[in-house]
Amino acid sequence: MTTSSLPPSVIATLPGGYYTHENIFALEQARIFESMWFCVVRAADLAKPGAFRTVQVGRESVLVTRARDQSIRAFLNVCRHRGARIKTEESGEVRRAFQCPYHAWTYDLEGKLIAAPNLTKMPDIDRVEYGLVNVHVREWLGYVWVCLADEPEPFEEEVQGQVVSRLGDLDSIHNYGIESLEVARRIVYDVKANWKLIIENFMECYHCATIHPELVEVLPEFAEGLATQLYVGHGAEFGEGVEGFTVDGSPGADRIPGVSETQDRRYYGLTVRPLMFINLVPDHVVIHRIFPLAADHTVLECDWLFRADVVRSGRDLEPSIELFHRVNVQDFEACERCQPAMNSRAYARGGVLVPTEHHIAGFHEWVLDRLGTGQLGTGQPT
Amino acid sequence: MIPACPLAALPRGEAFRLDAVEPPIAVFHTDDGELYAVDDTCTHQDASLADGWLEGCEVECPLHASRFDLRTGQVDAPPAKLPVRTHGVVVEEGTVYVVPSGEAA
Ligand code: FES
Ligand code: FES
Ligand SMILES: [Fe+2]
User: Fold this and answer.
1) What is the ipTM of this complex?
2) What global pTM score does this model have?
């Protein structure tokens, strides 16, 4: 590809094949999703010992649960006997143990093998060694991250470091007390688009004035198309006369107590690589967890979190929820509109990034760097 | 009378599997402080009841959840259908002994 021939205003995107090829997606699974800290579940969804969720992390199904000591544990969802899936349900609760439905190998909530037919006749089977395979777990902001790498990067650098570089410090996010907020609504979006299209879309606001009329009413500076994420510590200010981050500008819910004066009446959006968005407004937080399932298929779980007393008051939160729900639908429709064209001859060499999108090139470099396929132009999938 | 383990090594809620005898015997120390011994092997498949779940005077098989009454050996519900044998337990000088059924204390 001849990037040198582009006019100076624009920068090349990734070639279309990066959004469709199975070999690229397989590399992304191995070198990104299975190598980095991956935000998988809201800790409060695992309310008590034995409650579990299964989630797709790269090529692996991961079983996340709460053990007797209340700590969160995560395992590869694979029986150590002959490889049956331990749990096929998305969520549920076991009373005391995980039992494989095939030959009944039985594991406790810490993953240790505790019983199996004829097990006492095989005293050489070590019950920890033949327990479920543990993966690394961290809890932060009331969410659970897992890392499938043998030796994860420090969470502080890989995850928290991204928040610091966007907001300036960790206090700015801790102000929102996200771990003590409650999920008022969760919407799961099934999107027929490559995960990178979804990340790139979230990173730019060039499309805002065209596809997000309601959002731009609330945040007029978005009409200029500048990505707020570009400026450290910057949040987009609510428009004059806008009373809250709602679909109609009506007042939102009660403000989260820790939110500072400088954070009031502002929206902050953060991309936390590889697969999470955090949106902060004074009275609520919207968090997207992103699960790439195939090169052209991504599922997003989006949580709307408010103060616990607000959620319990039964107050109508619809105008607040509706705003970002519309933004989501508008964004994901745009991504689904692009996905089929990624295979087109017209997009074989990709498209272009205009100046307000130039920072997306940083995302592309990061992807290429993780994949180890070399610089753009030399690493084209064939 | 067969020595099983020191009483101190068998806290309440725990079980000890005595495999010096054939078939092996499981000794349970209930939450109420009682000691019971029954055949360790479930009568359904080969599962160790010592690995099961002790609740009150019952142990639930870890594999398919049939429950055995430790006092009588009776099973509550399938898939196991036959009772397990019960045995005597004696504590002497801090050691737990099992008296297999049919043997005089
Ligand atoms: S495959 Fe799980 S018990 Fe056999
Ligand atoms: S092995 Fe005990 S109930 Fe099946
Ligand atoms: Fe958007």
Assistant:
1) 0.87
2) 0.92
